[in-house]
């Protein structure tokens, strides 16, 4: 596909491995004022999903990476997948698919611009300028029309992505996540953070942490290359067991995490719970990093921390201990973030219970295009009603702030470029 007026060329690639890693990551870094790389949009992460067999045509994720070229220069790119189902997305459109089926129409395959299995807000359309980002969206729609696909979906998009999608006529959909944000002055420690909460919430957290300590559980953490191979193996045992206990195979293979260990260790923080010296549970946290920190030894004592975020991602346990999940997945990461000057901790998709752990509601946005005019009209009306419901839900949640003052910490926009 070529745009003669602007001398741009669109090339569709069937693998992230066909995109130069340095060029991709340079575009990613340009999406952030701080140059902080969202770990889930790094080329290494996306390449590992395919190379490990986690996101492939066999699992219902067929890559079609869309690239925008000006001469020999990569001006824009996005990770697009043809989907044969709606699993692993966290923005639910099963009702839309059912409606298509009831009318004898095919909803799948659909086009999805997202990070597989990862409900983390951030830049999805990597481009040098706003104009090139808009051009990339229009090229996506044109390609979907040419391929006779039912729809295009961009999930957990940044503000810049949303603006480009709106300009191109896509419909917007909002969901709610729960994130912790430090105040501008930070906290002097976990106790100081607790003192910012209401007495009820402060008491509850202390009780939950005491239950874990009274059960004889202690924690240790490792970052980057300090995570041993044995700890990676133990983590995967926990992660796999959690999925199997719910009757499902894990989305991500052990080989995927081996690739994370090898190609981007600086983006991973591991907490291991032990009792009597024996590991019983673990949680794996992703952390953002600047390109100058991507050396495998991302030292939290020396690196700059402005703009850095931790992301709650994976956990599992081999023993049942009351409140262990809360300690491993919320309190230990929050304490680490406070001690190391991180500004935000994102708790993942959904989970109103996270508010009791000081994670506040934030709005996330996706953008959608449907080829069938009648269905597009119906979905647009549905999104208007759903959007009004989300507004009311946000208002209700904001009245239930766990902090002493609703103004602490200040609200943030999780979809800022990253």
From TrEMBL:
Biased composition regions of type Pro residues, renumbered to the chain: 407-418
Q: Where is this region: Disordered?
A: 395-418
Q: Which Gene3D superfamilies match?
A: 3.40.630.30
Matching InterPro entries: Acyl_CoA_acyltransferase (IPR016181), FemAB-like (IPR007434)
A UniProt-annotated Pfam family: FemAB_like
Q: Where is the signal peptide?
A: none
Q: Which domain of life is it from?
A: Bacteria
Report the protein name in the record: Uncharacterized protein
Q: Which organism is it from?
A: Polaromonas naphthalenivorans (strain CJ2)
């Amino acid at each position: 596909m070529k745009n003669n007026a602007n001398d741009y060329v669109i090339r569709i690639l069937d693998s992230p491995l066909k995109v130069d890693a340095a060029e991709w990551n340079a575009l990613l870094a340009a999406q952030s004022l701080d140059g902080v790389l969202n770990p889930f949009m790094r080329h290494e992460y996306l390449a590992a999903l395919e190379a490990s067999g986690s996101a492939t045509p066999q699992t219902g994720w067929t890559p079609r990476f869309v690239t925008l070229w000006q001469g020999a220069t990569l001006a824009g790119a996005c990770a697009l997948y043809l989907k044969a189902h709606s699993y692993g997305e966290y923005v639910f459109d099963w009702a839309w698919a059912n409606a298509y089926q009831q009318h004898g129409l095919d909803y799948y395959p659909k086009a999805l611009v997202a990070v597989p299995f990862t409900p983390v807000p951030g830049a999805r359309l990597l481009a040098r300028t706003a104009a090139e980002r808009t051009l990339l969206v229009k090229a996506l729609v044109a390609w979907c029309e040419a391929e006779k696909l039912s729809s295009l979906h961009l999930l957990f998009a940044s503000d810049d992505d949303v603006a480009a999608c709106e300009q191109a006529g896509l419909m917007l959909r909002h969901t709610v996540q729960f994130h912790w944000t430090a105040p501008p002055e930070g906290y002097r420690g976990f106790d100081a953070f607790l003192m910012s909460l209401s007495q009820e919430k402060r008491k509850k957290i202390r009780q939950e942490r005491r239950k874990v300590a009274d059960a004889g559980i202690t924690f240790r953490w490792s970052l980057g290359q300090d995570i041993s191979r044995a700890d990676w193996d133990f983590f995967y045992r926990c992660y796999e067991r959690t999925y199997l206990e719910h009757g499902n195979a894990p989305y991500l293979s052990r080989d995927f995490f081996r690739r994370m260990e090898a190609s981007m260790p600086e983006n991973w923080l591991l907490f291991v719970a032990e009792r009597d010296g024996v590991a019983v549970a673990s949680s794996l946290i992703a952390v953002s990093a600047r390109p100058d920190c991507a050396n495998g030894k991302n030292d939290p004592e020396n690196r700059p921390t402005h703009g850095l975020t931790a992301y709650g991602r994976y956990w599992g346990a081999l023993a049942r201990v009351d409140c262990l999940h809360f300690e491993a997945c919320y309190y230990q990461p929050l304490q680490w973030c406070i001690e190391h000057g991180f500004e935000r901790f994102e708790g993942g998709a959904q989970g109103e219970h996270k508010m009791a752990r000081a994670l506040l509601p934030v709005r996330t946005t996706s953008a959608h295009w449907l080829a069938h005019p009648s269905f597009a009209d119906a979905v647009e009306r549905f999104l208007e009603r759903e959007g009004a419901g989300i507004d009311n839900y946000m208002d209700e949640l904001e009245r239930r702030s766990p902090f002493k003052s609703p103004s602490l910490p200040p609200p943030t926009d999780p979809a800022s470029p990253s």
